[in-house]
Amino acid sequence: MNIQKLLSWLAKHDINPVEDTLQPDGSRVLVFSTQLPRFPFGDRHVWYPLTIDADQTEVSESEIEALLRHCWHGELEIPKDY
Questions:
Q1: For the chain, where are the E strands, in sequence order?
Q2: What is the DSSP letter of 76?
Q3: What is the spatial distance between Cα 13 and Cα 19, in angstroms, rounded to a whole number?
Q4: Rounded-to-integer distance, Cα 68 and Cα 15, Å
Q5: 80 in any annotated domain
Q6: Residue 7 burial by CB count (10 A; 0-12/13-18/19+): exposed, middle or buried?
Q7: How far apart are alpha carbons 56 and 50 in whole angstroms?
Q8: Residue 33, in any domain of the structure
Q9: Which of 6, 32, 34, 81 has its CA 20 to 30 A from that of 20?
Q10: How many domains in the chain?
């Protein structure tokens, strides 16, 4: 999925980048965060770093699936035409 489309889609599910760091080699590290379900976690948040190479425009489906599982959103189906 295209990176900009991914950011837009994740925002609809309250998974947002809280940090965007440009590395010396031209890569970016996006750190996403979301709140865990209130029960049983209360007000806890999780974070997930995603490294994007300098010339990368797409994020693999397996990387998106890992991000969703980590953020307790494994139930979401990644749109194919987004």
A1: 16-22, 28-35, 45-52
A2: P
A3: 18
A4: 9
A5: no
A6: middle
A7: 12
A8: yes
A9: 81
A10: 1
Q: Which pair of structure tokens corresponds to residue 37? A: 């379900």
Which position has the token pair 């295209």?
2
- pLDDT tens for the chain, 82 residues long, are 999 999 999 999 999 999 999 999 999 999 999 998 777 767 889 999 999 999 999 999 999 999 999 998 888 899 987 5
- Tell me the two tokens of residue 78: 């990644």
Q: Are 29 and 23 in contact (CB under 8 A)?
A: yes
Residue 77 in domain: no
Residue 79 lies in a domain: no
User: What is the domain extent for residue 55?
Assistant: 3-70
Distance (Å, whole) CA 62 – CA 24: 26
d(CA 28, CA 41): 30
